[in-house]
Amino acid sequence: MRTLLLVLPACALCSAAELVVDAGGSGQFTEIHAAMAAAQSGDTILVQPGAYTIDRPLVFGGKNVILRAPGGPSETVIRMAATPLDIRDASILIFRNGETASAVVEGFALTGGQGTFYNTDPLGKAGGAVLCYNGSSPTVRNCILSGNRAIMGGAICIDNSAPAFFDCTIEHNEVTYDGGALFCYNNARASFANCVFNENRAGRHGGGIELYIDCPLTFTDCAITRNRCAQLGGGITLDVNTSPRFTRCRIADNVSPQYGGGLLVFRGSSPRLDSCILAGNLAQTQSGGALACDQSSSPVLDNCLVYGNRAPSGGIAVCINSCSPVFNHCTLAGNRSDTGTHVLCLAATSQPRYNNSILCSNFPAGTFCGAQTTCVAGKDPRFTAAGSFNIESFASVEFGGATMLVPAFIVEEPDFHLQADSPAIDAGSDVVKLGVDFDGARRPYGAAPDAGAFEFTDAAPAVAVHVGDVNADATINIADAIALLAHLFGGTGTDPACRAACDVNNDGKLDIADSVRVLGYLFATQSMLGPDGAAILPGGTGCREYPAAALALSCDVTCNP
Predict the structure, then answer these.
(1) Which position among 3, 251, 311, 400 has the lowest Cβ density within 10 Å, counted as fewest Cβ atoms?
(2) Rounded CA gap, 470 and 484, in Å?
(3) pLDDT bucket at 523, cuts 50 / 70 / 90
(4) Whole-structure pTM over 0.90, yes or no?
(5) Is the pLDDT of residue 343 over 60?
(6) What are the φ and ψ backbone dihedral angles of 164, each rounded to 5 degrees?
């Protein structure tokens, strides 16, 4: 008789614990520190609604613990005491032991943080609410970081780490030096999605954000608004080989007393901005209402809207020394430069380029240094609505016992979609090929790409759907039928990126009949049906364009017919 020995890892029979913190005493713990000390990696700490005052940071210590407030940030507050146990160690959350994305903080308001001296770092006290360094990559979700302060990074400091922030609001924070809301340093690789950086201030640079030394961050669907600095970069400062990517972000109503009301790009930094808005920013005494770049920094702006910005000169941008920003399919309108020079070059080595862009309706009619290729300039672009601006209007913001003024130039938001008689329609060329416009509509829509950020479409844009390609690998085979079955029944499949491609019998729903029909198509016994009801015969391509109105189900992945 043989004996089968089953050897299991030490923790294989263990299960993650759920620990409850309730200040009223109904949980296992009344203090978060005690729950953190008891928790192990994989555990979840549920913090019930209430205000929790701490006198020292919550340090994760390498544990991948979920710290969650089910009541959300409106009901659950973690506040650093006015007099911490150690004034040099007064951030609210610290990640420093290589925590991964499985270390999660969700649903809290974090306030009163004062920052921490760490690693004998010359930056001083950093990260008022959150300090993340030493290769840590936690996840922070649905939090409000407000009323924090430090020397660098009023709310957040990230050093050589890659945390991810989702759905967070970072506002009313302040710093002595740089990064009113956020300071990143030394190859930080963080990501921010659907976050708001609002009404923060810096005693030096980067009223909202400063990224310093090789920080390739990503910002997606974020707003950087109403921030103020005392020197450079009202909204954002990027310094020393720092090239982040901003996608669908709004950088608006920020103010710098000198250069770069919206964005300052400095010392070899070349960010990319895709489908972003730079609006209503102010450089008070110098140049670069929306953008200032210096020392071999050349940002690229694709499908961006730049409007309502103001400066004495270079109301849109200033290029100081060997800087050549590129504007691809951008709309630059409604900006104010007192001298009439809307993009100002202060050195012959600076050569901005404008490709397939609209440079119109700026006040007064002025000049743009650099080279224009197939642009629309000096004529009425026939926008749907030009908007309304008041360059003398400001708003007062009060926090931290002080008042700051921020621009309120935009009275009515413009609508830069083109009318049917716009001279920008088909005015572009293939000097640049972006594929889609600001809205995500196909570009070009007509005979040639339109100038500016928007393609003119006289009907709803067509969507290219690869019917039957469930796993979006550009082919139709047995794997597609299996992928759909896994999605429907296996519990292992992910939600298809193009549900319209999976509905191969065009009945408006996904079920086993669709998998059967894919198999019938592959074995030449059945045709598939496109979203418009037209048959796709066996052997034919499933990739075709359909009117958007014909899609009963969503499609986020398109094909090239």
Answers:
(1) 3
(2) 6
(3) confident
(4) no
(5) yes
(6) -125, 130
